[in-house]
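We modelled the chain as a single entity of 573 amino acids. Its sequence is:
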Amino acid sequence: MTPAISGEPTAPLRIGNASGFYGDRFGALEEMLTGGPLDILTGDYLAELTMLILGRDRLKDPDRGYAKTFLRQLETGLGPAAERGVRIVTNAGGLNPAGLADAVRELSEKVGVPVRVAHVEGDDLLTRGGWPDGTLTANAYLGGGGIAECLRAGAEVVVTGRVTDAALVSGAAAAHFGWRPDDYDRLAGAVIAGHVLECGTQATGGNYSFFGALDVRRPGFPLAEIAADGSSVITKHPGTGGAVTAGTVTAQLLYETTGARYAGPDVTARLDTVRLTEDGPDRVRIDGVRGEAPPPTLKTGLTRLGGWRNEVTFVLTGLDVDLKAQLVREQMESAFAAAGRRPAEVDWHLARTDHPDAASEEEASALLRLVVRDPDQDAVGRVISGAAVELALGSYPGFHVTAPPGKGAPYGVFEAAYVPAGEVPHVAVVPDGRRVEVAPPAATRELVREPDPPLPEPLHHDGTTRRAPLGLVAGARSGDKGGAANVGVWARTEEAWRWLAHELTADRLRTLLPEAAALPVERHVLPNLRALNFVIDGLLGAGVASQARFDPQAKAVGEWLRARHLDIPEVLL
């Protein structure tokens, strides 16, 4: 391969993305390599749930623990990358970056494409000890320093373990432009660009509130043209589907974030300084980003098996739905008592999906969902499945379930811990085998909440309102942060922002989303984006792997909020 990081450092660096999660579009890597010019191609394969999956893989085979899909993609991707001089940077190494690096070298020989491979390690802290009993994985979120060292040493494929998603981009940019560790504004700009790219097609119209106005049947993957000052232009390859607009970029900027300070291992980027400007068709410029010293600790993701889980969904059709639900609950509770063991957690939820005088049986039916959890598999196995099946001929009229209940399955728990940055090794293993230590930040700054800025002047109107969905005037994007959910809401116009900023308070959100009524809710104000970001603590229980609710990753909470009705000024409609 021809090194992509060379020559004039003032030229923009074109960094693309080909994966937003383990299981994303398989052909994206080759599409991005052949669809237009690139210098760097990144792939994000890791999430909280993925680490648990890889941890279980590693239990079965110590040589596993990485994203095997990436290797299969490289079988057809190494050749085009070599021809075009594109370097590849990915966190697909998961729990075994050295193992994946070796596998890439073997693949390189197999397909006849010589490649210089490096990897980054040090994030795996499981052997450090002191974690809760049963901890399966413990990985610190490293920054981009190791990636930068690998690229400076001539690596053409860089494999990492658990780094921050944005570090794939910021590390490459730092290597290309020669940024110092205290070039906070430049690094922050690259981190923001990396955050936009990290979830792939979510930046090009995927999962976008106003998708109806776009062609999102097969959105293209995004890329960023990063300048020497850290500013960037988000775009995509010509002729690919989807769109890059200020709205699609805003939505991704709000995804899985909290307040004005977006903390990372290398820099804390100030989301409240981000400026977005349309720069032509499918081009959005990001500039003005300010950065600060990073926090003194590194977030460390811990996963463990939390116990065993089982569920049964009863279908209640036609009349007397509430009475039918009450009967089933009483019958199942009696079965628990007769068995002498009630699961540690028993959750019931009745979804009134039924319609009166329905034209189809499905539309006449409601769903009663029973979810149980317990440290002991026996407590969620036959006790549940047997009791549910035995009701078949002796319960409510029309009794049936959506699927036969099983024996129960293990579920995982994600927790976050924080470790002093100086105590976490960060090592770049460069192509010639040398191990380069990456120093922790020389300066740090405690992460504290930035006071909310002044709100805009309230919208003045004649008082005429209409009861209508919030989504007519605002977009939303939501996601998971461990057991918390974030919901970012943005206004499409300045007038709508002047109304939204005053109307949608934390208390108002609790009213609109009753599931959050008893939970802590923080609201953060981001005027540059005409946005509010809410963090709902505890909505997801012990995290995505525990499947505590119908939408375990809170992917659609934002769309639920947009569908809620409230009194909206007529002038906005």
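As a brief sanity check on the tokenised model: The CA atoms of residues 244 and 282 lie 4 Å apart. The chain has a mean pLDDT of 94.
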